[in-house]
Amino acid sequence: MFSFADLEIPLVGAPMAGGPSTPQLAAVVSNAGGLGMLAAGYLNADQLAEQVKQTRELTDGPFGVNLFCPADPNDNPGNAKALLQGYRQALAPLGKQYGLDLLNYELVLPDHFHSLLDWLLANPVPVVTFTFGCPSAEQIERLQMVSTYVGVTVTNPQNAILATQADANFLCVQGPDAGGHQSTFRVQDEVNQLPLSQLVPAVQAVTNLPLIAGGGVGSNQDVQSILALGVEAVQVGTVLLLSDEAGTSQAHRDALQSGITETRLTRAFTGRPARAIVNDFVTEFDALAPAVYPHAHYLTAPLRAKAKDAGAWQHINAWTGTGFCQAHNSPTIKIIFNLLKPS
Fold it and tell me: Residue 132 carries which DSSP code?
């Protein structure tokens, strides 16, 4: 079974769902001696099978797959339907600009979690991590029985305790500066505000499990300060968004290089809190967005897709952490070298 002691460098490539994570990106991280990750949150089993196949063709090193735990419908408010209808009405004029009738758009809520999990049980990979919750102890045990090392992403000590009790092998500690979704276990949960320097010791106080940690990492100094907290490895994502091997869309790349420097945790795009560049969409809809997931995600998805195709970065979910100004157009291996070179 995988062990962090087997890594040559203490870096994990953060899984970035929706495009940025690719087999090529995962393979470069693994070939450099770290742990590359595939993001399966929005994939079906066939798509995951193809990405795993490609990754295995590109690296002999260990790599992992990240899954989104399905949301409990009871996590959404009792008036979720009315809240969504109100959001439809707010979004409708912008949707119309892109030729979309969001008032009558039928929401389809695919759930591939169990088919993905079944595929990973039949086709084991070295590491599997979970976001948005903790799988059952039985699901974790089944993965461990096929020699998969299991991690759970946590944002507070309470969830670290739950993951420890479920017998996870390790925890990914996500700080509030991380780009994209915060891995809150429940949709309605408030986001942890403790900086990583305080969050990691708080988690260490309640568990003896190995930890990796990340959020807002952009420099060698960031990496060294996190490693000094006693974690096994540092997880990096945002700093890789502009890399040659990342699947980051052109609109997303344009947003990162637009000159905007402000990011915000917002529910505007998906109903879950996620850190993004403050573009026109965030400015207009942040205060209006309901905490209803995954419904809000699938309501805004066609609009965001149209905007991405049009290159309109002001209307896309430009996920990024606070350290995004340190991301550069560069081969991934060069970025890794800069993160680890002696200061």
Answer: S
